[in-house]
Amino acid sequence: MSDAIAKTAQQAGATAVQRCIVPACAAQFGIREQIYVCSRCGGPLEIEIPLEILKSVPDLRERWQARAVSHDPRDRSGVWRFRELLPFDDDVPVITLFEGNTPLYDAPRSAKYAGLTALRLKHQGCNPTASFKDTGMTAAVTQAKLLGARAVVCASTGNTAASLAAYAARAELQCAILLPRGQISPAKLAQSMDYGAVICEIAGNFDDCMRLISDLADVPSIYIANSINPFRIEGQKTVAFELLEQCGWRVPDHVVVPGGNMGNSSALGKGFDEMLRLGLIDRLPKISVIQAEGSAPLAHLFAGLESSDITKNATLPDEIAPVANPRTLATAIKIGAPVSWKKALRAVLRTHGSIITVSEQEIADAKAIIGRDGIGCEPASATTVAGIRKLTASNKIHAGESVVALLTGHVLKDPDYVSHYHRGTLSFESVTTEGTAKTVQITGAFRNAPEKVAASKEAILKSLESRR
Ligand code: F0G
Questions:
Q1: Separation CA 448–CA 110 (nearest Å)
Q2: Model pTM?
């Protein structure tokens, strides 16, 4: 590559802008302006990378691949390896924990369970703080430093908080996290304590915490790191690039993700879209989002859309009806008013994917079957395999198609859930259509409880024999 082209590629990100995604507004803002929503119409913002400049760069794929074996700290990160597509100057000091570069596993038992010939699982739980949030946080906290913020804050169901706390510690920034009291897995809370964050336990749910975060948006010394922040999405979009690289740039037919606050699905949509517009792929995978039945505002909206013309015209509705009292044991996605729903819906409509719900029983069994493939994920991640099973049953996914599910968090994020499932003590507080509460027992199809075995060779062999 000529020096001139190399320079162009390195500086492309620096000429990016922030743009309102509402087509009728499309207001543009500078890349170092500290805003989270459009100051003209209140719409969501997205970073616009000057892809035209990058089109003249002939060997982007080879460059990214070569960096994977380099020892430059930026190259060792699975996010900064793709820095031509990130909205930063080439020489910014990056805050990294060497995130990304996560494995893509074949999962034959999960495939069979889900009605597929083959299924691949991309395990984002193999990130430094054990969830996919790290890929976004490296970009958001790097931006916080550039803006001269004194503190970073987020609302969280646990993983965003743990991730932000770790990256803030690396950046020597103060960090405050707003958590719904009593609704966070103890393992996630423990992470944030260890990383030194100020932990504010709020009487309310995640959506209440998110509302409080909006109130903090006008404090200049504070930087908000929820996925409403478009820099988070920039980091998280790189999972699409890395996945394509791992697939030898053959586009999977389907990519399936869990849906909570909808940052992940938004980011994937953006990542694949940029690859298409750069000409590095020639079609988009269908992106499908799976929500837990009791916390599924976007699935409800989508169900209403499917039968109308809106799906064809890809026109985004203005409003979403929130779920006032979201419920699910998959606490990571216990969210009733997702902030990034518009971007996520746009990605699903553009790619002709689906948004569906799965039950608590389906999530729990899917999680256990993923475990039988030797892959440990947290409950929210297992919505994917449960969802794929439903999508194959309804012919939205065909058995022979290539399917990748994104696992978003590690099994050790929520060990209590796992233990209760296998011991047969997992239960769920549900509400009937009349509004009365009832306890639903989860009956694990793949239970595997510890058993008391006598301290003898014979007893151990007998135990093995009985389970053969
Ligand atoms: N899976 C896990 C493990 C999560 O922690 C989350 C979100 C999701 C899926 C959903 O992703 O919000 O981008 O649609 N957790 C956030 C948090 C809300 O605060 O940790 P999303």
A1: 17
A2: 0.96
